[in-house]
Design goal:
The protein is mostly helical. The chain has one domain. The chain is 82% helix and 0% strand. Helix 10 packs across helix 11.
Amino acid sequence: MDRAAAGAGGNAGSKKGGGQLRFWLGALVGAVFLGLLWTSVDMAAVGALLARASWPPLVLALLAYGLDFLLRAWRFRVLLDPGGRQVPFGPSVAPFVASFGISDILPFRLGDVFRVYWFHRSFSLPMGHVLGAMVVERVLDLVSILMVAGLALLLVDTALPAEIVAQFRLVLLVAVGASLLVLLSPGAIEAVAGWAERTFPLSLVARIAQTARSVAGAVRGTGDPRRILGMVLLSFALWLLESLVMFGAWVSLGGEVGGALKPLVAFAFSTLGTLVPALPGHFGSYEFFGMLSYRAVGVDAEQATATILLAHLLLWLPTALFALGWLVSMRRESPLLVMKAGQAG
């Protein structure tokens, strides 16, 4: 084994250890969140509400969710291949959707690993290029869900003190501005990274600066600022479309159609809550922050919990089932087997 291979092996071992630590931390935090939810809510009343759920709003919610994923797959294909010459749209949809389902079932974000490897192998794309497109995708999603949260918080009447709401709005505004700066000004990010390295000669700063340069390079590879701005607007629309899943669960359980801003607030902040480590599928953090959001806009605990649980099931189950079905249909070309064979070779 040469020195480069040894270094890669040590780095892989370090990443594996860090991944295991994050997994167990997420499992602990997710279990604690679920435990807090279980002990603070009348689960019998929640079950009774779920038993009376109306199906038509749920069907419409699932149709909206399917369209959302179809458009997300198209967005990722555009980020990978703006000209559409190397990555055809049709064959890219199923592995894109399956990658989410794999992460919803298995730990260590294996769906992300699979997506990078699958698109690299199937379309002869450099792994760094696929990873860069995923980084831009995540930044687009972050800025868009922050925009949704800001819009919802601006329009809804909450039970929170005005000072706290004002602070939330300020934090969201700063976060959106910083995210847009990353997307629209990659050169500025590289300049700030260089200044930080020269001013603060610390290993942590150097790692952050290196990550910032990687993000800036990935953004630059996706096209000009006009294209990126269009992607921001598309991503904002995609999150509004996905929020219809929460709205469908809300209406299905007897929520008023006129109170649509309440599920929008809960959807935005429960989604942001998934940034906190949790169980695979984001179980624990999604429910906890969603319930807190509903309580902040005046929804009782049982109604809030039932709506969050139903919405999360609608968001988790379709992609998980799709991933399982797709993996079975692939059989010998199962992505997990392909990845193992590639590593052995």
